[in-house]
Design goal:
single chain; five-stranded parallel β-sheet; five-stranded mixed β-sheet
């Protein structure tokens, strides 16, 4: 009998935001897998390091962060092949993913390669927009509002069109694009309605108005934009 692949969301960073189901699976795992930035550490693993059993086998999947898709595709191909070997041997594999596995999660690429041949279960985790909204004490959307999740990597014109078309927006993947986001919100008259959140739930969490945000944002950061005057009151 082949093993089961579990895609386990470990939340935004604080270990006590890991779900009970995720903790149970991690604590009983014989094989743990996780993608990393090539040559770096795994943030997902660091969140649950204290839950991983001694002696558990670890499959590290080094994924290069390049604009070219081929190197990352090759890394996922290799990682999926190594996971498949353990599944074929009858071992369950717990694959860690920060946040939620299917919300911009790396697990989806492994699932796409393995779901046809193996049993796959997904354990949802606290997604980063929910964590940032909690940190900022800022509802993501209320009543009949629409909510858009928008990557800051879009061209500036597309970014402006998308933010301008919805009542509430979560702008992710900031990094060097934060200045572009601020220019867009300035033109739309929304900078005063925008909040910057970095490293939500971690000890070095930052929450501030977008106007006071740094010029370059870390990877784990986003901007929350809400129109109107406190519609949830």
């Amino acid at each position: 009998m082949t093993g089961t692949l579990y895609g386990v969301g470990v939340g935004p960073g604080a270990p006590d935001l890991v779900t009970l189901r995720a903790a149970r699976l991690i604590g009983g795992a014989a094989v743990i897998a996780y993608p990393t930035l090539a040559g770096g550490d795994s943030f997902a693993r660091s969140i649950v390091a204290g839950m991983i059993p001694a002696g558990a086998e670890e499959i590290r999947i080094d994924v290069p962060m390049t604009e070219a898709r081929a190197p990352a595709q090759a890394a996922y191909d290799d990682g999926a092949a190594r996971i498949a070997e353990r599944l074929e041997a009858g071992a369950d594999v717990v694959c860690l993913c920060e946040g939620d596995p299917l919300f911009y999660g790396s697990f989806m690429y492994l699932m796409a390669r393995l779901a046809a041949g193996y049993r796959v279960e997904v354990v949802p985790g606290v997604a980063s927009p929910a964590a940032c909204a909690a940190a900022a004490r800022r509802p993501l959307a209320a009543r009949n509002e629409g909510l858009a999740v928008i990557p800051a990597t879009l061209p500036e014109e597309a970014l402006e069109a998308r933010i301008g078309a919805v009542e509430s927006a979560v702008v992710m993947k900031l990094g060097r694009h934060l200045g572009k986001v601020r220019r867009v919100t300035d033109r739309l008259g929304l900078t005063g309605r925008a909040v910057y959140v970095a490293r939500a739930s971690l000890p070095d969490e930052v929450v501030c108005p977008l106007a006071e945000a740094p010029a370059i944002a870390p990877y784990f950061s986003m901007v929350l934009v809400t129109r109107g005057d406190d519609p949830w009151l």
